[in-house]
Amino acid sequence: MSAMLGCRRRLSRLSAWAIIFAATLGATPTRADTLVVNIDQAQVLKLPERVATIVIGNPLIADATLQSGGVLVITGKSYGATNLLALDRSGSIVMDRTVQVLSASSNEMIVVYKGIDRETYSCAPNCEHRITLGDSQGYFAGALGQSGARIGQAQTPTNR
Q: Residue 61, class by beta-carbon neighbours within 10 Å (0-12 exposed, 13-18 middle, 19+ buried)?
């Protein structure tokens, strides 16, 4: 009789573990509602039908551009997290997602520390200045100024 009781206990423990295991396999991960975007990069998201309005909680962290066919392009602008809401014509929420903007992990990016000052370089194949949030103010402003001057020169018509 005691052997039968021990067998039932083991069977009930095994059943309990099987139920817990099955529940965790079937559970939707919380990360499913989070869209991860690298800073200075974009992700494409297909929107549900009926979307009329897109709202980004903090446009300093991420930007969204609606394309034809219900395609949304989300660009990471600064580190952090914000939310993305898609509303239908009546103002009802059709989609609510978290947008997490992370730093791009790249083997081609080098970070140089000079005391407390930080400089970032993109090395593919030669190392060049890379404008990255968190770099020291002088380095960031200098690289941004050079980039702006170059763009200005490219947009200036030349006389031939």
A: buried
Q: Phi/psi at 107 (nearest 5 deg)?
A: -75, -15
How many whole angstroms separate alpha carbon 143 and alpha carbon 140?
A: 5
Are 74 and 45 a contacting pair, CB within 8 Å?
A: yes
Query: Which CATH code for domain 37-102?
Result: 2.60.40.1080
Q: Could you tell me the pLDDT band of residue 26, with boundaries at 50, 70 and 90?
A: very low
Rounded Cα distance between 34 and 88, Å, is 21
Residue ranges, comma separated, of all CATH 2.60.40.1080 domains in the chain are 37-102
CA distance 127 to 145: 18
Name the pTM for this structure. 0.59
Q: Do 74 and 99 contact (CB within 8 A), yes or no?
A: yes
pLDDT of residue 48: 87
Q: Which pLDDT value is given to residue 68?
A: 85
- Integer distance in angstroms from the first to the last C-alpha of the chain? 104
| Six token digits for residue 95 | 């989609």
Burial class of residue 131 (count of CB atoms within 10 Å of its CB; 0-12, 13-18, 19+): middle
